[in-house]
Amino acid sequence: MTIDCCSNIAFIPDDIWEAITIKVATDSIRSLCSLRMSCKAAHDAGEADIVHRSVSIPPPHATPWWWCLNPEANRFFDRCMAAGNPELLFREALRELFIRRNENVGIRMLNSASSRGHAAAKYAMSMMLMLRTDNNVEKQKGLELYRELDAAGLLADSNARCFSILTVSWPGEVQMPRLEEQHTVCASPTCSTRGHMPLLYDYRRRAAERNSVHAFGRASHIPCIQCRADYDLQAFVNLP
Description:
The protein is an all-alpha fold and 240 residues long. Helices cover 58% and strands 0% of the residues. It has a domain at 185-237. α8 crosses α10 (155-169). This is At2g35280-like TPR domain-containing protein. It comes from Arachis hypogaea (Peanut).
């Protein structure tokens, strides 16, 4: 449906149109395109960088295959990336980290995406920082990010988001970091579960292969937050 250029709605101020367009863009690309076709004011508002930064990007399994072959779609995604769309920054960060092996660039992209509220980017950032063995300050920063995600109940969903991107987008191309003993987060000599997370992860993995109920729960029953972080590190490096 188009809007009559002579109607009162055509005289809505530009900043209001921009706010409306941002709201619609957070729903879906399809909704944004429909709005932009409704009238010139909506079309012009859709050109703003903040709209491209805010638009909701569908998950890989829900993305039409022909988008990657469409020049107009590619230009749209390039514009979103240039505007700092957090979902696209997150995906490109994973590519830099685990395919191109460019850690510095990947970390910067994760930091940018997580600063804009992207939970999965924050999760990947926490994992990468906790894998550091040369900088204890960075390792502790990673643990703090992990605590925040744990408190918000976002760990499982964030892990699943990383799994979706790494397995659907680039099957067979991903090279995850190796997890060594020196990467262990829990350093408490009195912790009864310290050092046992690889065994728990292997138990959960084998249970999942048998479709057993024991595959569920991850390490949620473990009282030590640092040991739970060690479990998630095991899950993270074994994602693909």
